[in-house]
Amino acid sequence: MANPAAPTDPAQPDPDESPAAYRKGPVMLRGNQVPRETTDQRLLESRGDAGWVHQDQWRVLRIQAEFVEGFGALAELGPAISVFGSARTGRDHPDYARAVDIAHGLAGAGYAVITGGGPGIMEAANKGACEAGGVSVGLGIELPFEQGMNRWVELGVNFRYFFARKTMFVKYAQGFVVLPGGFGTLDELFEAVTLVQTRKVTQFPIVLVGSDYWTGLVDWLRSAAVAHGTISAADLDLLHVVDDPAEAVRLVTRAHDEPAATPESQSSAT
């Protein structure tokens, strides 16, 4: 399936596409209908009057519904890998091509590919999975600047709450492939490391793609965090830094087929 011509900047929609849609759970909004605050923001707001006392009980039901929808949609997904990276990566960037190749390789190895469903690296991974005939999954989130699901998502679920969405990324994946990204990518990366390090999940390889981007972070963890005693040196063995897409695919699929012991760690989660 060929990718139609598209602008370099993923923040600019194609002229032949509909205006970017804002997703609020199952509801799609555009234009003046887009709200100025998110569901998560309202949930976590601690200022103002005490009206929340009478509302949060009902929010629990909405939260429960998100878990039910996610579990129902993904229960029969089969083996999958979550791929993370920046939404700002242009289609002509080398990282975009890497993500396409990685997802193509994962789909060829029989894995579904799970992303956040947005543009940039997420779009690239969904594209690679689709072109290889694999299962392309997008887990969207309600954000003021979110552009909706990219065109390559075949199975999409929209979430209001970050914590419900994060559960799906981990529950239905056998590993993470992390390409260069910003705060959201770093959040997912360190949450994954924490879950493996504390043995909340097992058999969960974490592959960082792009040594020029990730080596500085790993070096800092070694020279500062390990040296300061806040993490164990063995914790760094949980991270694999590679440049070759084929090597990234090999590492996550090998770990699933031949489970390796989780490195022993003396540090505690904070």
Summarize the topology.
Elements lengths: L21 E3 L2 E3 L9 H6 L11 H19 L5 E5 L9 H15 L3 E4 L5 H11 L4 E6 L13 E5 L2 H10 L4 E3 L4 H15 L8 E4 L1 H18 L10 E4 L2 H13 L13
Parallel strand pairs: 3-4, 3-7, 4-5, 5-6, 7-8, 8-9
Antiparallel strand pairs: 1-2
Written description of the protein model:
The protein contains eight helices and nine strands. The radius of gyration is 19 Å and the shape is globular. Helix content is 40%, strand content 14%. It has a single domain (68-257), classed as Rossmann fold (3-Layer(aba) Sandwich), CATH 3.40.50. Mean pLDDT is 84; it is low at 1-13 and 259-270. With 270 residues, it is α/β, with parallel strands linked by helices. The termini are far apart. The strands form two sheets. The protein has a seven-stranded parallel β-sheet, sandwiched between helices. The protein has a two-stranded antiparallel ribbon with strand order 1-2.
Query: In the CATH hierarchy, what is the architecture at level 2?
Result: 3-Layer(aba) Sandwich
Strand content: 5-15%
- Approximate helicity band: 25-40%
Distance between the termini: 46 Å
Our Rg estimate from Cα atoms comes to 19 Å
Q: What name does the CATH topology carry?
A: Rossmann fold
* Count of distinct strands: 9
Number of individual domains: 1
H/E element order? EEHHEHEHEEHEHEHEH
Q: Major sheet: size, sense and barrel closure?
A: 7 strands, parallel
Q: How many helices in DSSP terms?
A: 8
Report the CATH C-level class.
Alpha Beta
Mean pLDDT: 84
Unreliable spans are 1-13, 259-270
* Spatial order of strands in the largest sheet: 6-5-4-3-7-8-9
Helix- and strand-based class? Answer: alpha/beta
Shape, principal axes of CA atoms: globular
